Amino acid sequence: NIKVLPTGIKCPNEGCGGELVSRRSKKGGVFFGCSKYPDCDYITKELPGTMEVNKEEGSAN
Fold first, then answer.
1. How many Å apart are CA 27 and CA 46, to the nearest integer?
2. Number of structural domains the chain divides into
3. Higher pLDDT among residues 29 and 58, named by residue
4. pLDDT given for residue 55 in this prediction
5. What is the pLDDT of residue 42?
6. pLDDT for position 1
7. What is each CA distance from 58 to 19, 41, 46, 47, 61, in whole angstroms?
8. What is the pLDDT of residues 30-57, one digit of tens each?
9. I need a labelling partner for 54 at 20 to 30 A (CA). Which of 1, 2, 38, 45 fits?
């Protein structure tokens, strides 16, 4: 069984329209890929926008 968990974040590939989902690699690591795979092959280890620093508070979002 492959567990796919939705993130609510749209795929950043232009014109894709998919959503990033959390997946587990064969080695047990977590990555995020497009829900429209294999039509869209976008993958990343970090969700876009999750490591931005809030300049007013000086903390990560």
1. 17
2. 1
3. 29
4. 45
5. 96
6. 56
7. 29, 34, 20, 20, 10
8. 999 999 999 999 999 988 766 544 445 4
9. 45
| Lookup: tokens for 22 | 């959390």
Between CA 47 and CA 28 the distance in angstroms is 18
**The pLDDT value given to residue 50:** 62
- Say which CATH number the domain at 28 has: 2.20.25
More confident residue, 12 or 50: 12
Task: Give me 50's structure tokens.
Answer: 């999750």
The range of the structural domain enclosing residue 24 comes to 5-60
SS3 per residue for the chain: CCCCEEEEEECCCCCCCCEEEEEECCCCCEEEEECCCCCCCCEECCCCCCCCEECCCCEEC
Residue 19 near residue 7, CB atoms below 8 Å = yes
CA-wise closest residue to 9 among 48, 61, 53: 48
